[in-house]
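User: Can you help me understand a structure? I only have the sequence.
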Amino acid sequence: MLRYTIENMTCGHCVATVTKAVQGVDANAIVRADVAGRSLEIDTGATSEIVSAAVAAAGYRVTPA
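Assistant: Let's start by predicting it. Here is the structure, written out as tokens:
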């Protein structure tokens, strides 16, 4: 499981965008987002580097939690 803090994730649209970015690199990824805590948990077979790059490319600041 990968865990991140997404500083600028502030709404449901952000969650949808981040989820789409993650599932773009792993269609089977399970994404759990908490807007209030600005946290993201992902069950995926993709590497942390690939996932964080995809989320960053979608416009979000990603840091490991």
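Now, to help you interpret it: The chain has one domain: 2-64. The longest strand covers residues 2-6. Let me know which part you'd like to focus on.
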